[in-house]
Specification:
This protein has 15 helices and no strands. Helices cover 84% and strands 0% of the residues. The chain is globular and about 55 Å long. The longest helix has 36 residues.
Length: 396
């Protein structure tokens, strides 16, 4: 008699499996979020450097993540997901130590800045390792048919952590000083290392190993669309504090929280939209909502409307990454999933690395409001590209 097929895992079971893995993403982005609203003002006001240098300080982390993606993908595919996450958490611990040391050297502004930049580099590498590691681990754990859910929950963990971390960092730095942020990063990294210690990793998948640049070429069409949409996120997180200061407003950290809360709400409400409607269609609608939010930030006459613009930006951007990601990962074999995820993530990192210096230069000449106008136009360009990809996929 034939044995009955094992029952498919329930949605609740799959979600719990995913959450147990994206916990490490939450820790990583909590550590990214803690200094994000404090850092531009610290570099600009406390250390005395320009807005462009403040933007470069934020952007260097994203550039480091970008450059580390090939290494992260290769490490995940060859050594396993758990090791990638452990190495990433060690990087966060190192970033925390350097941030603390930088705060002790504030009487030497240039030295303090250089040490701080070293910490930003380590934090960027850690983000790359943990980002690729958790996504590959999650997809391997629950199956490729749940790719959109893994990416969605990973994003919820990411932006939820930033929504919590940004105001928490402002409060922590205000009460205990900038040095406390470095110690907080160290403490969270050590906590996560204790949690991951006894968690079993997945076996390394055997099969074809695509070189990173071969995987990059396969996912590039979707990746360029992701870059065009994600510059709006990089612009908001890097410059919203200085935008508020220019307008004479307070509460910039809550603008980041509005973005994060609406981002999470969109993913919770529309988690199955990608499987229902297809990645390209969902991406087009989401980029349109994002462009509307960025335009509202550009024209906002008050903090209330700026919060609404930030919320719409988060609500729209929310599903762009998983929507285009599902289409991108279809282009690579499962044995090279780490390389494919790393290559796709490069385009997100590229957006954040570009946003700092590019928008800093625009702000220096036109004012901070205009950076949101430029970001909205780039999102509209992403819509045009995605419509071309949709038409091409329909032809096949």
């Amino acid at each position: 008699m034939t044995a009955p097929a094992p029952a498919a895992p329930s949605n609740r079971s799959v979600t719990l499996q995913i959450l147990s893995i994206v916990f490490y993403t939450f820790i990583a982005f909590l550590c990214i979020g803690l200094p994000i609203a404090v850092l531009p003002g610290h570099v600009h006001d406390q250390l005395g450097f320009s807005a462009v240098v403040a933007g470069l300080t934020i952007g260097l982390q994203y550039l480091s993540t970008l450059l580390s993606r090939p290494m992260a993908g290769r490490l995940v595919d060859s050594l396993g997901t758990k090791k990638a996450i452990v190495y990433g958490l060690l990087g966060i611990a190192g970033a925390g130590l350097l941030t603390w040391v930088s705060a002790l050297l504030m009487s030497l502004p240039l030295t303090s800045l250089l040490v701080l930049l070293g910490g930003r580099v380590l934090l960027g590498i850690a983000q790359g390792l943990i980002g690729v590691g958790t996504l590959s681990w999650g997809i391997g754990e629950v199956g490729a048919e749940h790719t959109a859910r893994v990416i969605s929950w990973n994003g919820i963990a990411s932006y939820g952590a930033i929504a919590i971390g940004a105001p928490a960092g402002v409060i922590l730095a205000g009460e205990l000083g900038f040095a406390s942020l470095g110690l907080a990063l160290l403490a969270f990294a050590l906590l996560a290392l204790m949690v991951v210690r006894n968690k079993p990793s997945l076996a390394v998948v055997r099969g074809e190993r695509l070189p990173f640049w071969a995987a990059f070429a396969r996912v590039a069409p979707c990746g360029v669309g992701l870059t065009l949409a994600s510059i709006g996120y990089g612009t908001l997180t890097t410059f919203v504090t200085l935008f508020y200061l220019e307008r004479g407003w307070s509460g910039a950290a809550w603008c980041l929280s509005a973005f994060g809360i609406c981002f999470i709400l969109s993913r919770l409400l529309f988690v199955n939209a990608v499987n229902q409607w297809g990645g390209y269609r969902v991406a087009v609608v989401c980029m349109a909502v994002e462009a509307l939010g960025l335009a509202l930030l550009w024209l906002a006459p008050s903090p209330v409307l700026a919060l609404l613009g930030a919320g719409l930006t988060g609500f729209g951007l929310s599903l762009v990454y998983p929507a285009l990601g599902v289409e991108a990962i279809k282009q690579v074999p499962s044995s090279s999933r780490g390389a494919g995820l790393g290559a796709y993530a490069v385009f997100f990192d590229l957006a954040l690395a570009i946003a700092g210096p590019l928008m800093g230069a625009i702000a220096a000449h036109l004012g901070y409001a205009w950076i949101f106008c430029v970001a909205a136009l780039l999102s509209l360009a992403g819509i045009a590209l995605t419509l071309l990809l949709l038409r091409r996929s329909a032809a096949y």
